[in-house]
Amino acid sequence: MNNETISIIKNIALNLSDLHEDSSVPLPDWDTLTLHSGLPGLALLYGELQRIFPDEGWDEIGNKYLTRIVKGIEQQGGVPLSMFSGAAGIGLAAVCLSEDFKYYRNFIGGINQIIANQLHIYTDQDISNGVRMQEYDVIEGLSGILNYLLLFQSDQSLRPVLESGLCFLVNLAVSDISVRGVCVPGWYVPSEYQFSELESQYYKNGNFNTSMSHGISGPLALLSQAYMQGVIVPNHKKAICRIMEFLKGCQISDEKRVFWKGQISFEEYKMRCLNEDNIVRRDAWCYGSPGICYAMALGAKVLEDNEMLHTIQGVFTDTMHDMKGIFSPTFCHGYAGLYALVQAMQELTGQEYQEEKIILKKIILSYYNKNKRYGFDNIEVEGTQLKEIQSTGLLTGAAGTCLALLSGEGGLDGMLWRKAFLL
After folding, report:
1. What's the chain look like in SS3?
2. Which range (194-198, 293-297, 358-362) has the least confidence?
3. Is the pLDDT of residue 132 over 60?
4. Average pLDDT, the chain
5. CA–CA separation, 325 vs 395, rounded Å?
6. Tens digit of each residue's pLDDT (9 = 90 or more) over 342-356
7. For position 51, what pLDDT does the model report?
8. Closest Cα partner for 16 from 357, 395, 390?
9. d(CA 44, CA 35)
10. Whole-prediction pTM value?
């Protein structure tokens, strides 16, 4: 382990340990129940520190925040099911603090029961006219929830629930629906289901999202991982193959390399011809080639398609040497997510990415400022300017950045926090 890197992570963790006691610090996203930006993300960080450094008392801090989470659920009267806004993320935080289920069994069991009782909200959806991304994606949908449930695949009370969710995603992938007389994949997102009014106006006939965070790459990664773990439902491999074929057909090239548009319009799909409209280049975990490549590498492994795996590895490597639109140290759409992805790709494929890991780690650490409370700020585009934003969060804050750095120091075995990102 690199002592300097570990020292930075521990200093940030200590600064994050008593924020609730310091009312002078502005905490716009503090004390929420979301893995995205609140307490569960911090619990993941302390759980990971406890796993790697078991004699330093990090579990005590984690337990303090888990207690706050429990009180928050009671006051709120419940939570949604999703990974980044609800029960699955809270459950994952408790699991990571549990020291291999030594602690918090009753709490984890209660969270699992909430998911088991309510998953039908997702699986009973009528998808004959298209689907909301939030119903299947990693952030709010089934892909994130089911990846959490994979931790409990041997639990006979949860296995049918897990399989029902997988069957929904498989059906989404293998079924076609008719849109304006055109046969399209079931993960078609109609105009009225877009995230914003602006997108609804731009995609008046709907679209298809390719990304890892909100698009079809998330279900591809989830279905592939479930298959590799032996949790298999009817038409499982057919669904993986269908998504893989779609993503292969959605590639676009510049003068240097292959990449993917985040959204494919209905017209582009109908004409089987991609255009250069609405291309936003961001090579991140959430959108762009890195996350998509990882999902497709998982799919190629399941399909035993070595030629496709080799091709995807090439695209991934080219992307790491020509990163577009990355300017923040954080996880979701920053360098920390790429650092974690490079390690995950190496673990999955056996290909070494030593040079890429060294470069990415150096870049992340260059953003560190010891005079900032959280050490690393998130950086976002605001108008034509870049703006630094303080955040404790997992997706776009210090917790996620520290966890990614820890993954390069403590080894990947046992790092359950990565399940939040399907890694």
Report:
1. CCHHHHHHHHHHHHHHCCHHHCCCCCCCCCCCCCCCCCHHHHHHHHHHHHHHCCCCCHHHHHHHHHHHHHHHHHHHCCCCCCCCCCHHHHHHHHHHHCCCCCCCHHHHHHHHHHHHHHCHHHHCCCCECECCHHHHCCCCCHHHHHHHHHHHCCCCCCHHHHHHHHHHHHHHHHCEEEECCEEEECCCECHHHCCCHHHHHHCCCCEEECCCCCCCHHHHHHHHHHHHCCCCCCCHHHHHHHHHHHHHHCEEECCCCEEECCEEEHHHHHHCCCCCCCCCCCCCCCCCHHHHHHHHHHHHHHHCCHHHHHHHHHHHHHHHCCCCCCCCCCCCCCHHHHHHHHHHHHHHHCCCCHHHHHHHHHHHHHCCCCCCCCCCCEEEEECCEEEEECCCCCCCCHHHHHHHHHHCCCCCCCCHHHHHHCC
2. 194-198
3. yes
4. 93
5. 17
6. 999 999 999 999 999
7. 94
8. 390
9. 9
10. 0.95
Q: Read off the tokens for 252.
A: 């676009």
Question: Pairing relation of β-strands 207-209 and 258-260?
Answer: unpaired
Distance CA 209, CA 138 (A): 12
The position carrying tokens 């060294």 is 358
183 CB neighbour count, 10 Å cutoff: 9
Q: What would the two tokens of residue 80 be?
A: 């949604």
Q: How far is CA 267 from CA 47, 271, 323, in A?
A: 47, 6, 29
Q: Which residues does 377 contact at the CB level (< 8 Å), separation at least 6? A: 329, 367, 369, 388, 389, 390, 391
